[in-house]
Automatic annotation (TrEMBL):
Keywords: Decarboxylase, Lyase, Pyridoxal phosphate. This is Biodegradative arginine decarboxylase. Belongs to the Orn/Lys/Arg decarboxylase class-I family. GO terms for cellular component: cytosol. The modification N6-(pyridoxal phosphate)lysine is found at K394. The lineage of its organism: Bacteria, Pseudomonadati, Pseudomonadota, Gammaproteobacteria, Vibrionales.
Amino acid sequence: MRKYGKKKHALIFNDTVKAGVIENALNRLIEEFASESVEVTIATSFDDCYSIFNANTPVDCFMLTSQMTGRQADENEKFFKLIDKLNRRQQGVPVFLLAERKKITLSVSRDLMSRVDEFVWIIEDTPDFIVGRAVAAMERYRDQLLPPLMAAMIKYDDVHEYSWAAPGHQGGVGFTKTPAGQRFYQHYGEALFRSDMGIERGSLGSLLDHTGYFGDSEAFAAKVFGADKSYSLVTGTSGANRTIMQVCMKENSLAICDRNCHKSIEQGLMLTGARPVYMLPTRNRYGIIGPIYPEQMEQAALKQRAAEGPLTKDFANQDPVYAVITNCTYDGLCYNAKRAQEILGKSSNRIHFDEAWYGYARFNPIYTDHFAMRGEPTESEDEPTVFATHSTHKLLNALSQASYIHVRHGKDAIDFQRFNQSYMMHATTSPLYAISASNDIAVSQMSGNRGYSLTQEVIHEAVDYRQAMGRLYREFEQDGDWFFKPWNAETFTDPNTGETVPFEEADPQLLASTQDFWVMKPGDEWHGFKDMPEDWCMLDPIKVSILAPGMGDDGTLLDTGVPAALVTQYLTRYGIVPTRTTDFQVMFLFSMGITKGKWATLVNTLLHFKQHHDQNTPLKSVLPELVENYPDVYGEMGMKDLSVKMFNYLKQHTPSDKLNAAYSTLPEAVMTPRAAFESIVENNVEMVP
């Protein structure tokens, strides 16, 4: 069987033994490892060893050498730090302590004994015996390393089957029969095509029936994400949302819906014929999407809206069978989900949190109470049934189209057999198994210590970037100049001392671990949401918006400004793609794939933009494609010329005001979403340019 595509790797930390009989024994040990095809790395200092772990270098066995003399407490402290660092991402790697038996007996501490898997008598035991023990430990570690489905797929791949079933390319061979197919095959590699199998492979189980290793994978996900039941999907969160709606509602059911919902929620209404009772979210002066306020969710308000709505008034005597809110909003505003569930639970027995961009929240305490699958599942007939949908491919680590449905059973729970009918309706009988396997890996990466370690690293990177931008903003401001400003609270109060300091001067460790800083306070000017309730909404640290100058705190445009669309155009020219742009906001997502310090390039590019803007650099130098496509319009313009022209347009036409007004007002409903779609089917529609 292939061992996951690489040699075994042993890391030996030796910063004390430099000569003599023990060093000779170590050299013989390394030779024996080589004879077993085990790659060995020697770290001769604490910093070197720590850096190896920091680089996420895969390790199958970690060996510590000790003379067990002198400053034993200092040596142990180094050992503890290294073992703790190893366990943050590579929990379960066997740890061996190499020393003389007599000295271990006399000097080893209880704490060290509890953190080490095996003690090796480096002088008395033979290299063959030590390496044999180490290789066996590595095998045990590797056997449990992969989650259920991924491990089974790798084992199945070793069968090298001769198939007479689908898919027709037969492990990629079919592609190799033409030049274009060969290029396609070579580009993606053999492993992808060998893992592309049909549902006839019964030994793996079934995605549609949730049996075998597919069922094991979903059970593993439920345990990690705190659900009673989890469903793995290859149709994205769009498919996940439609699956839930299809099984919860029927024609003329009442559904409580977030007006700021994903299109798949609208599609669910089209499919089911349910009648929506909408809750209106908020927007601030920058066009940033805020939360629905509690009064919109209250039972009395929803009943009144249903009774007054032209599409719902004839059905207002019904209880809503489903409620959905988007958590977090696209701009990274996260509800206090515990409170939202308590309020919505008075109106509906089934609550759906669309958490497509928020699948990591359970694994970091900074998000406490602000996500659906809080705590551990408990049987209760007093709580609503809760659904959470996650796009694992968005901000966890999975392939595109991978998603999960997580369920906590409560009132009006839907049993597996009924739910699975809807699941199969929105699934496929020909799933790409690599997508399912990536879902399995995404869960594995969040299990144990890894979830916290990975999420905390991303939060730290985002905080570092925010503070760097904050410092630059203050420096330019002191010089009477402009720069971009991070959108977050401008001061931080230390929870331990009560001291308040500017955000950019705060301890980044505290910023990355203090939820209260990110919770939006009523009346705070920075966030711009009027009447924000206490403890209702927090800003996700990893969804970072920067603000270009041009808008006052009261929402009116200033005399001068820098349109964000121009900033995004420049960034895109240099290979930096923001996730969202409004009139004066540019937003970036910090994810687990962001390498440490990568944000420094972003800061430098923004500084270069400012230089070109202020110097009015000709567009033909900084945005040549724009000039090439529209030479008559932009050929003689400079960067600042275009900026001024765009800003004047915004000031004259105020599109953001019109957009905010559109989002803050419910249009008169004259037909249900289903009826509207049927008009498309009947071609009773007119395209609006």
